[in-house]
Structure formats: structure tokens, C-alpha cells
């Protein structure tokens, strides 16, 4: 499929699983009605972004894969004949949890999973408390719409992750995401720089690897505690970039939105012929990349 229509479901979430899933399914159906054959959901879309606090009770939100959510989405994928990329809080075993993306084929079968490799630990983003680092590597997932290089949120800042997905044969890079500003931050020039940096780094992955990039972020203000002392304003801005980093389509910063974009995968070969970065890589000189830091 050289010409591929993708859909992104950018949505706000509540603490009601059923409401979130219903909103997601409505978004998927809307995207499919508009011609999307590949649909990307945002990071941890079934609930609030619970990682704002360290709370053992939140482990109750985790689920197995396969499990309830994948069963629901599998039926939708089969009904609509679309490929869905979902992001879930995976319970792998008692006491072992991952931040996991699951790819559901248009037949309703699970095509594969990716476990988030880079786990952040920052104020409001205490993911190391909940998630073990992924152990599946950077392996694209084969589907009827192509080889999907699925990565998750914090992974999007690391060029190594995008490069390895590209070297392993990815046709598209996809990033389900949950990122925003602390509600206490004054959104001045610094906030603008943060958002622009987030867009720029991902566009650079498209340029460096000659691949389309698809990014779906959540929107809305989510409070960490019932007393509403802490919160994150998620900045939306989901977007799709082409193989030279050009923005094909982008969403708003604050609205529930179904974003549709058309990708021409044939351009991957054309772009790589003109900008042969893979040809000119000096793999013989990159040994120090295996070091955390060169003292």
C-alpha cells in the first residue's frame, strides 16, 4: 500500500474507563469513515494519566494482553477492517508491569506488541514507579498496511530508537504520547519552546531516516489528586510528518479531534535516494555510542 490514509484519535480522558473507551471507539469509527486504514490512539488512552503520582492503588488499572481492551478493539478493527495501534498499561505478571503498545490487525488478531523502552521519572511523570523497561527491542510490527515502527512517548526524544526501527525495516514511525505542561507553569516563551522542541525532534527523526512520522497526543487538564493541587495541561498538537519532515497535517492544542492524513510510502525510496544517510553512515566509528558517556 503505497498510498495510506492514517487517522489519529486525539482525546481528553476521565477516570471512567467505559466513557473513555466509548469515546475512543467513536473516534476510530469516525476516522475509518473518512478513509483511514491505520488508526493511532494516544498513550494510555483508557484512563487518566495516573503517573502524576506514586500510588500503589493505580496498579489495579493494569490489564493483560490479550485482555478486555484488546478484545474490544479487536472487534472494532475486524468490523471496520482497519489496523489499530493502542497504548495500554500491561500487567505481564504479578508485580511486573509495562507501558505497552499493541497493534491489532484488520482481521482482529494481535499483530504484535512493543514495550516502552525509555521510562521517564520527572515531576508529574513518575513512570519508573509503575513500568519496567521494555524487553522486546526495536522491532517493527508487520501488518497489512506495512511494517510499523511503534515507539511510545519518552522514546520520541531518542534518535537511537528511531534509527534502530528504521534499520530493522520500519515503513512508518508511530508515537502514542502523553505530554503537556504542569498546570502551575506560566505558559510563556518557555512553554512554547518545549512544545516546539517536541515537534522538532520528531520531525528530525523523519528527516534522518527518510520515514513518515505519526504522533498522537492527548488533550485536556488532568488533576493528579482530588484536591486539585497538581495537574497537567496536555498540549495535543498531534501531527503527521512526511519523509522529509514536512508537516502533512496537525491538530489543535486543546480540542478532541480526529486527524486524517495521507501518506505516500513510495516517497521513502525516492527520498532515501536523494538523501542517502544510510549509505554514508560510519558504523565503524560509532563504538562510543555503546557507552553511557565518554569521560
Give me a quick take on this structure.
The chain is α+β, with helices and mostly antiparallel strands and 295 residues long. The protein has helices at 17-33, 68-80, 159-167, 189-209, 267-274, and strands spanning 3-10, 38-41, 83-93, 96-104, 110-115, 121-122, 125-126, 141-143, 146-150, 172-177, 180-182, 213-217, 219-223, 231-235, 239-241, 247-250, 257-264. It has one domain (3-290): Carbon-nitrogen hydrolase (Nitrilase/N-carbamoyl-D-aminoacid amidohydrolase, 4-Layer Sandwich).
Structure characterization notes:
By secondary structure, the chain is of the alpha+beta class. The chain has one domain: Nitrilase/N-carbamoyl-D-aminoacid amidohydrolase (4-Layer Sandwich), CATH 3.60.110. The protein is 23% helix and 30% strand. It contains 5 helices and 17 strands. A 6-stranded mixed β-sheet has the order 5-4-3-2-1-17. It has a 6-stranded mixed β-sheet with strand order 8-9-10-12-15-16, with helices on one face. Strands 11-14-13 form a 3-stranded antiparallel β-sheet, with no helix packed on it. A hairpin with a 2-residue loop joins strand 6 and strand 7. Helix 1 (17-33) runs parallel beside helix 2 (68-80). The longest helix is centred in the C-terminal third of the chain and has 21 residues, at 189-209. The chain is globular.
Amino acid at each position: 500500500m503505497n498510498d495510506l490514509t492514517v487517522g489519529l484519535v486525539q482525546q481528553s480522558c476521565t477516570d471512567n474507563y467505559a466513557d473513555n473507551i466509548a469515546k475512543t471507539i467513536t473516534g476510530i469509527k469516525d476516522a475509518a469513515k473518512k478513509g483511514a486504514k491505520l488508526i493511532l490512539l494516544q498513550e494510555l488512552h483508557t484512563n487518566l494519566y495516573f503517573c502524576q503520582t506514586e500510588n500503589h492503588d493505580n496498579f489495579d488499572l493494569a490489564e493483560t494482553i490479550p485482555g478486555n481492551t484488546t478484545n474490544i478493539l479487536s472487534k472494532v478493527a475486524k468490523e471496520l477492517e482497519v489496523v489499530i495501534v493502542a497504548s495500554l498499561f500491561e500487567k505481564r505478571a504479578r508485580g511486573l508491569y509495562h507501558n505497552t503498545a499493541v497493534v491489532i490487525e484488520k482481521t482482529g488478531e494481535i499483530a504484535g506488541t512493543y514495550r516502552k523502552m525509555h521510562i521517564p521519572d520527572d515531576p508529574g511523570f513518575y513512570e519508573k514507579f509503575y513500568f519496567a523497561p521494555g524487553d522486546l527491542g526495536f522491532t517493527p510490527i508487520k501488518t497489512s498496511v506495512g511494517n510499523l515502527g511503534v515507539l511510545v512517548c519518552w522514546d520520541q526524544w531518542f534518535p537511537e530508537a528511531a534509527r534502530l526501527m528504521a534499520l530493522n525495516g520500519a515503513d512508518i514511525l508511530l508515537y502514542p504520547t502523553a505530554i503537556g505542561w504542569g498546570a502551575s507553569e506560566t505558559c510563556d516563551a518557555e512553554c512554547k519552546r518545549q512544545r516546539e522542541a517536541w515537534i522538532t525532534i520528531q520531525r528530525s527523526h523523519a528527516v534522518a531516516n527518510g520515514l513518515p512520522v505519526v504522533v498522537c497526543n492527548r488533550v485536556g487538564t488532568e488533576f493528579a489528586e482530588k484536591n486539585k493541587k497538581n495537574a497537567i495541561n496536555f498540549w495535543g498538537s498531534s501531527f503527521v510528518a512526511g519523509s522529509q519532515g514536512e508537516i502533512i497535517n496537525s491538530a489543535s492544542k486543546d480540542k478532541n479531534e480526529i486527524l486524517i492524513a495521507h501518506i505516500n510510502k513510495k516517497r521513502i525510496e525516492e527520498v532515501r535516494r536523494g538523501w542517502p544517510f544510510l549509505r554514508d553512515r560510519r558504523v565503524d566509528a560509532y563504538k562510543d555510542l555503546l557507552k553511557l558517556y565518554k569521560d
